[in-house]
Amino acid sequence: MKWHENLDEMMQHLAKTGGFLTVRDEDGKVNTMTISWGFVGYLWNIPQFLTVVRPQRYTRDFLATADSFTISVPFSGLRDELSICGRQSGRDIDKAAVVDFVPAKSVSSPIVAGCDFYYECKITYRDELHSSKIPPDIYKKHYDGDWHDFFVGEIVETYGAQ
Ligand SMILES: Cc1cc2nc3c(=O)[nH]c(=O)nc-3n(C[C@H](O)[C@H](O)[C@H](O)COP(=O)(O)O)c2cc1C
Fold first, then answer.
1. Which of 146, 157, 97 is nearest to 121 (CA)?
2. pTM beyond 0.85
3. What number of CA atoms fall less than 13 Å from residue 92's CA on the CB side?
4. Interior CA angle at 62 toward 59 and 67, to 5°?
5. Per residue of the chain (162 residues), what is the pLDDT tens digit?
6. What does the DSSP 8-state code read for residue 21?
7. Which of 16, 73, 102, 135 sits at 20 to 30 Å (Cα–Cα) from 95?
8. How far is the CA of 59 from the centre of ligand 1 (A)?
9. Cβ distance 63 to 126 under 8 Å?
10. Which residue from 57, 78, 146 has its CB within 8 A of the most atoms of ligand 1, so it is best to mutate?
11. Alpha carbon of 125 to ligand 1 centroid (Å)
12. Alpha helix stretches (DSSP H) within 4-66
């Protein structure tokens, strides 16, 4: 499947109900969290997914040492799971008891079973949004002394329901 196939449908579901950002760290621990914000496009002529994660998320710790992440987007169903993984931290609950992690095809981070759209990404870039460069009205609306880190990953696999 091409990386831009079903892109419109995937982005609509990601923005409205969310998707799972799943990461395996260098020690083999796995965590997932719900995300709604992300970009897809070309960087260095390579299709990439950019995800934005606040530094206080447990998943952010995993991304510090990981070499990959996956994006799993349900088009229907898994609503309770999206809600739990978007409100509770892996510091407090075991997310493997909430969703089923299954091995990905080409990266070490697993995917979440039962979704309709998947990206597997190899991390190519990490940086942070600088609060001084965010328009003041946006900063006031979306931030409370914090910011977002962003993580870019080369899309190495794209597929639908397994
Ligand atoms: C629909 C939805 C979308 C979300 N999108 C994001 C996002 O794009 N970036 C982010 O940092 N947090 C986002 N969150 C919040 C995290 O999912 C939430 O803080 C989660 O509990 C973090 O889990 P962790 O501490 O195990 O990483 C979202 C939450 C929901 C419910």
1. 157
2. yes
3. 8
4. 125
5. 999 999 999 999 999 999 999 999 999 999 999 999 999 999 999 999 999 999 999 999 999 999 999 999 999 999 999 999 999 999 999 999 999 999 999 999 999 999 999 999 999 999 988 888 889 999 999 988 888 899 999 999 999 998
6. E
7. 16
8. 9
9. yes
10. 57
11. 20
12. 7-16, 58-65
Cα–Cα dist 33/21, whole Å: 5
Instruction: Give nearest CA residue, ligand 1 atom 6.
Output: 35
Residue 74 burial (10 A CB sphere; 0-12, 13-18, 19+):
buried
Cβ of 34 closer than 6 Å to ligand 1, yes or no, is yes
**CA atoms of 52 and 36, how far apart (whole Å):** 9
Q: Is the CB of 58 under 6 A from ligand 1?
A: yes
CATH superfamily, domain 7-160, is: Electron Transport, Fmn-binding Protein; Chain A (2.30.110.10)
In what helix (H) or strand (E) does residue 152 lie, and over which residues does it extend? strand 149-160
At 125, the amino acid letter reads: Y
Q: Is the CB of 31 under 6 A from ligand 1?
A: yes
